[in-house]
Amino acid sequence: MKALKSLPLVKILRYAFWAPLMAALPLFCYSPLRIWLFRLLGGTIGPNSTFHPFRFFNYYHFGFRNFRCGKDCFIGDDCLIDLAGLVKLGDQVTLAERVTILTHTNVGYDDHPLQEHFPAFKRGVTLENGAFVGTNVTLLPGVTIGEQAFVAAGAVVTKDVPPHTLVAGVPGKVIRYLGKKKEPQMNTDEHRQ
Known about the structure:
- About 15% of the residues lie in helices and about 25% in strands.
- The protein is α/β, with parallel strands linked by helices.
- The strands form four sheets. A seven-stranded mixed β-sheet has the order 2-5-8-13-16-18-19. Strands 1-4-7-12-15 form a five-stranded parallel β-sheet, covered by helices on one side.
- The longest helix is centred in the first third of the chain and has 16 residues, at about 10-25.
- The protein is globular and about 55 Å long.
């Protein structure tokens, strides 16, 4: 009952509209149908993407307008994506199985004793072109995963990930740089004939 009292009527009506649509989502088991539905509901999704069964939550705030996905993306089974804030996936982004993307933090109702220490906030999450996110990774609100960065399985990403890096651990830390290797230089003095 407390939830109903704390929410404005508009949010309750939005939830009543979106909840049946999300309940029907498993019926759209074929990836192109699922993508068609997300586009119909306001999501921006580029061509040639593959979406396995995964879940959104907080979709009733803005519908699917907070989901933008480039071309050639892959979203694996059981991913969980928070649409309270904007989620942007560039081109050729891969989310392996059970990735969680969070865009907000809220410890509870307005009178919760921890609200004073941890006020509610929303921040979008961005994954730039060619980023890969491994199985069971959690991305916290406000992070950006740089271009062609690799986030290893099980990592909890609390800060931005630089482009062309491998990140692993809890909390996620840069393990190494993935930049292009330089071609070996031949010593011209040794190879003169």
